């Protein structure tokens, strides 16, 4: 891995396309350019559990945000880089559909509540709309 290289970076439960801006011993600093997979909602220490002390709303990293990623979680990326807003919209839609397909699952329901809060924030931040997602 080297500075300027376009990569796929996995951070916590999300996946991003970005540009390496610095390489350290076991860490790459990656500037986010697009979202491949939106982070899952909830508590990282208690995955897929609803009864936790704090159920997190996990936002995707912002456009051009610099993130630290362990070097072993960075892979070369050679496809076309989508526009950040388009990639975020697609990643949110995919996560929403995955969660909505399990209406009997308490974790999916709680995650949908958290995701709907984030969708309202993304709409304000980026001027995006999700006409197929009920926000109430």
TrEMBL record:
The UniProt transmembrane annotation reads none
- Could you read off the lineage of the organism from its UniProt record? Bacteria, Bacillati, Bacillota, Bacilli, Bacillales
Q: Name one GO molecular function term.
A: kinase activity
Species of origin: Siminovitchia acidinfaciens
Among InterPro entries, the record links this protein to: KapB, KapB_sf
Q: Name one Pfam family in it.
A: KapB
Question: Which keywords label this protein?
Answer: Kinase, Transferase
The record, for SUPFAM superfamilies, names: Kinase-associated protein B-like
**Organism's domain of life?**
Bacteria
Q: What is this protein called?
A: Kinase
């Amino acid at each position: 891995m080297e500075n300027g290289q376009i990569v796929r970076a996995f951070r916590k439960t999300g996946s991003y396309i970005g540009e390496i801006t610095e390489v350290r011993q076991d860490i790459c600093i990656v500037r986010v350019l697009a979202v491949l997979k939106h982070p899952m909602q909830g508590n990282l220490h208690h995955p897929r559990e609803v009864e936790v002390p704090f159920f997190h709303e996990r936002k995707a990293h912002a456009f051009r945000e610099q993130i630290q990623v362990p070097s072993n979680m960075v892979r070369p990326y050679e496809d076309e880089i989508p526009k950040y807003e388009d990639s975020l919209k697609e990643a949110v839609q995919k996560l929403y559909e995955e969660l909505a397909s399990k209406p009997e699952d308490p974790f999916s329901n709680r995650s949908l509540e958290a995701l709907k809060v984030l969708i309202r924030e993304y709409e304000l931040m980026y001027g995006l709309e999700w006409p197929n997602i009920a926000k109430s």
